[in-house]
Amino acid sequence: MELEKYRKDVYKCTRCGYCREMIRDRDGTYLICPVRELMGFESYYARGRMLQARHMLEGRMTPNPALAERMYSCMTCGNCKDHCGAEIDLVSIYEAMREDLANAGFGLDAHRRFVESVEKDKNPYFEPKADRLKWANGIELRNDGKLIYFVGCTSSYRRQEIAKATAKILERTNADFRVMADEWCCGSPLLRTGYKKQSLELARHNLKAFEDAETIITSCAGCYKTIKLDYLKIVGKIPVNVLHTSEYVLSLIRDGRLEFNKEVKEVVTYHDPCHLGRGGEVYEAPREVLKSIPGITFKEMYPTGKNSLCCGAGGGVKSGFKDLAVRIAEEFKIKPSEQLGVNAIVTTCPFCKTNMIDATVKVGSKIGVADLVELTEKAM
Amino acid sequence: MHLIQETRSELYNILANVSGSSNVTEEPADLVSYSMDSSPEPARIPRIVVRPGSTDEISQILRIANRHRYPVVPRGAGTCAGGGATALQGDSIILDLTRLNKVLGISDVDLTVTAQAGITWGALLHGLAKKGYRPPFFSTESGFSGTIGGAISSASMASQGATVGGSAADNVVTLEVVLPMGDTIRTGSDALPNGGKFTRICNGGDLAGIFLGSMGVYGIITEATFKLEPLPEYSAFGAYFFDRWEDGINFGLKMIKSKIPETLNVIPGNRAVKKSYNVDKPVAFKFVIEGDDKVIVERKKELADKYAREEKGVEVENSIKKTKDWWAEWGERLNKIAVKYEMMWGMICHRIPLKKLPEAQATADEYFYEEMKIDEYNIKLEVGAYFTEMRPALGYYPYIFFDDSDPRVRKKAWEVWDGWFEKCITTYGACPYWLGYGWARHTIPKLRTPVYNMMVTLKRALDPNNILNPGLFTF
């Protein structure tokens, strides 16, 4: 049992409840888990999950569909881990429990389809592998260059505007970049949903392709965390420098290689993607880029930074429980943004963008949702 | 909200009619999450959990429970440190009160805040701070995540804020309570339709007192009005150790008589003082002074220092910055110790008069280290005490920390924890202020017979079918 590896951690839980509500001086935030706020019961946040884990370890509960539903309703956003009074690596425990559930046949159908699709087409969307670069229609792509733009499945197939904007920025700043002709899914959807073994082949393939590169940039916060942190666990050392596009764009601005020529007159806020923020501790780069774009008025949406609440899409929730994912975005992102008086939410993850757009459509909100690179490219 | 369809019982349907199906569950994966609180008590799985959204729903649920004779266990945030928030009987309905989480009003003229019982201290303090207030008492041992209803029901208090404010219960002005048969009452000045919420003992007695600290045995608190005070502008911090217990006790008495400290804490026993300040002394004191006037705060600090020097105290800490750390420490202190040891805790706090502290500490040292041999099981002991209600009355806490993942250690830790209740009551006369099942099973049977009989009579009068928290007080 994968969970057995975390026995000591499970029993360290003091059941203090700081994974539900907590005040930290840094911004007075007290809400931690959007799922708990909407679902209500103890079983939908960390403390209850630790009791579920305890009962599993003690053999008083075995994998079952209801337990799977509770475990898979978590976005693995890591806010509970970050606030845990006992400093337990909660997300690793969730992922171990998911692995045990999946191995026992209680993984969600939507996630099993990820595995099927990734095995067949190297992306979780059942899109033809041959169409991966279709987004680049009209953009000349090279297959050499020391900088790899790792586009990711969502930007390749679902949010192509992000891939296009990124490629244009790279082109116009004369970056020595290439896009991988044989890019495979980074493995994040499998890792987060209990299919770690199935993700290993993807990691090995991509790592091999990285060998002659110096730097990799990713559009997707999930790809970023997976390549930078999860691949590291697999191979021990990542041979290249891994950057998120927001970090890379900031370096271009600082080096004077990227200059803005146009104003973008928007009042915006920023949503921290969990895998980029809490996962990769990248908080300031996107904000600095945003604030440097002429015409932008920036307003911070609280809770923010390390305390930012998840948009609802991560950890397989978007595919497993679509309504829940959209409701979370509606409650914790769209409504607060409307109250803040902005006309757009800027983010740095195509998956967050999709979920927040779905929420605006559901509630008929006029709030726009854009990726940072779109605004950057618009201002060049 | 349910994400998948699950099987439902008749009881489920009855309760779902009251609170809505998304607020009722009898699914084992949910029930196990309600099986423990923040104590070493064993897991106890309830039959069903309901999350009522109003006082009226609670009233309806209690009427249903009476009709069908289901035990009902009210539960706030489940952070009780003594087995007070779990179901002693397997067929229990747990009432998860965390949907009752609203601040209902802040009065700048009465200096009160009224809130629903399921609001957490985190949320309440967050809201009050924005308006420049706090309750005089504001530090339950369960920290930010505990609810105010839970804190009132367990008369909770902790080492920051209790010296002036006492316990959560001491700061109550009025209550709204649902009685076991389903009737809803209001206490204090609010007992009169046009009385308002400004004072506690009036209109024929202290009805609130029945429900304060009684763990939901006589009724379910659904709303409370607390006293408020403005957040202070200035503060000072100091700490001294003393060569003899008597010197420390004299210092403590002088501080209390002159009403100087906002908070006055004791580090009792050579082991604890050594751990804190690396000196072999029997006792040390830490204090915080607060106020709106810098000159007054500084003068009080001068007096405190003078009193300490008169008792030959040696200063060990003195910094304004330290005060901020001190307040920030509240709510995270225990967790920090748990993290240091990588262990679960067992809390055993109770009240004693100041004069008994040396005896209590000697008893604790003998019990934990010599009688129970906690070192052999790598069980750690942390002790401390704090003054309450600006009186020489202490909250005294020996806490154990243990490796909960090792069944042998867990069993021993439970014996140590459970045994200490008996020991401290029967040796130096410890008085528990919160009565989880851990404390209650040792305390209630030892009450003077007429007191015990009166409590049983009161219980029978209010709860003839014995549905509210049956067995928690042993009856």
Instruction: Give the helix level of chain A as a range of percent.
Output: 40-55%
Overall SS class of chain A: alpha/beta
> Between the first and last Cα atoms of chain B, what is the distance in angstroms?
36 Å
Q: What is the number of domains of chain B?
A: 4
What is the top-level CATH class of the largest domain in chain B?
Alpha Beta
Mean pLDDT, all residues of chain B:
93
Catalogue the unreliable spans of chain B: none
CATH topology of the largest domain in chain B: Uridine Diphospho-n-acetylenolpyruvylglucosamine Reductase, domain 3
Largest sheet of chain A: 4 strands, parallel
Per DSSP E runs of 2 or more residues, the count of β-strands of chain A stands at 8
Say what the CATH topology of the largest domain in chain A is: Rossmann fold
CATH class of the largest domain in chain A: Alpha Beta
Give the topology:
The complex is a heterodimer of chains A (380) and B (475).
Chain A: H1 7-10, H2 34-39, H3 46-57, H4 65-72, H5 79-83, H6 90-103, H7 109-121, E1 147-150, H8 153-157, H9 160-172, E2 177-179, H10 188-192, H11 196-210, E3 215-218, H12 221-235, E4 241-244, H13 245-255, E5 266-270, H14 284-292, E6 296-298, H15 317-320, H16 322-340, E7 344-347, H17 350-363, E8 368-371, H18 372-379
Parallel strand pairs in A: 1-2, 1-3, 3-4, 5-6, 5-7, 7-8
Helix pairs in contact in A: 3-6, 9-18, 13-14, 16-17
Chain B: H1 10-19, E1 24-25, H2 28-31, E2 48-50, H3 55-68, E3 72-75, E4 93-96, E5 103-107, E6 112-116, H4 121-130, E7 133-134, H5 148-153, H6 162-165, E8 172-178, E9 184-186, H7 208-211, E10 220-227, E11 229-230, E12 234-242, H8 245-257, E13 263-268, H9 270-277, E14 283-291, H10 294-310, E15 314-317, H11 320-329, H12 333-341, E16 344-346, E17 350-353, H13 357-371, E18 380-388, E19 393-402, H14 407-426, H15 437-443, H16 449-462
Parallel strand pairs in B: 2-4, 3-4
Antiparallel strand pairs in B: 1-2, 5-6, 6-10, 7-11, 8-9, 8-10, 12-14, 12-15, 13-14, 13-18, 16-19, 17-19, 18-19
Helix pairs in contact in B: 1-3, 8-10, 13-14, 14-15
